[in-house]
Design brief:
This protein is of the alpha/beta class and 205 residues long. The protein has one domain: Rossmann fold (3-Layer(aba) Sandwich), CATH 3.40.50. 42% of the residues lie in helices and 21% in strands. Strand 3 and strand 4 form a beta hairpin. The longest helix is centred in the last third of the chain and has 23 residues. It starts with a strand and ends with a helix.
């Protein structure tokens, strides 16, 4: 499927990636599919819940990125993939698999997708969503407490011990590999319009 456009959307946790991705999926519907790097977190069936809770999920080694690269190459060839599904409430992969067929536009989103050179090279367009660290922390607290069953204390502990240092070590430096840097993600209507125009142009070709 040579006419497939792969767009990478990276940025720190709580930066606004999800808002941007949602705006694109609402606009382009059946022409777009989204793959989250989070679903490629490694399975840890050998560990207890408490042991899994202590793992560093913000380091590149936490992901099975080789599998994601393989899946993107298969999609480019016009082949359907079966993507793993990660369950944040238990810190482990679920038994579910997500069937993803190739579409004109594939969006890959995640905090660390620009940190791996091989993964970056699979992308035709690279977008980095930027936001102030205080804003990102507040959004992360709101999301993890409401949607992932975490306590406020556990979210703050995780932020201080792994999220913040890993952001500074891996996520922020990967910004330099972006083609476009978008402050405030999907709320940046000027940038959103430019991105949508690029996608429209590709779909119409």
């Amino acid at each position: 499927m040579s006419g497939l456009l792969i767009i990478g959307i990276a940025g720190g946790s709580g930066s606004g990636k999800t808002t941007l991705v949602r705006a694109l999926t609402e606009r382009f519907g059946e022409n777009i599919t989204v793959i989250s790097h989070d679903n490629y977190y490694k399975a840890h069936n050998d560990l207890t819940y408490d042991e899994r809770a202590l793992l560093n999920y913000d380091h590149p080694d936490a992901f099975e990125t080789d599998l994601l690269i393989e899946h993107l190459r298969l999609l480019r060839q016009g082949r359907t993939i079966h993507c793993p599904v990660y369950d944040f409430t238990v810190h482990n992969r679920s038994d579910e698999l997500l069937e993803i067929a190739p579409k004109k536009v594939i969006v890959v989103e995640g905090i660390l997708i620009f940190a791996d050179e091989r993964l970056r090279e699979e992308m035709d367009v690279r977008i980095f969503v930027d936001a102030d660290c205080d804003v990102r922390l507040c959004r992360r607290i709101r999301r993890d407490v409401r949607k992932r069953g975490r306590t406020l204390e556990s979210v703050i502990d995780q932020y201080l011990t792994t999220v913040k240092p890993m952001h500074e070590q891996f996520v922020e430096p990967s910004k330099k590999f972006a083609d476009v840097i978008v402050p405030e993600g999907g709320k940046n209507l000027v940038a959103l319009e430019m991105i949508m125009h690029r996608i429209e142009k590709h779909i119409d070709e």
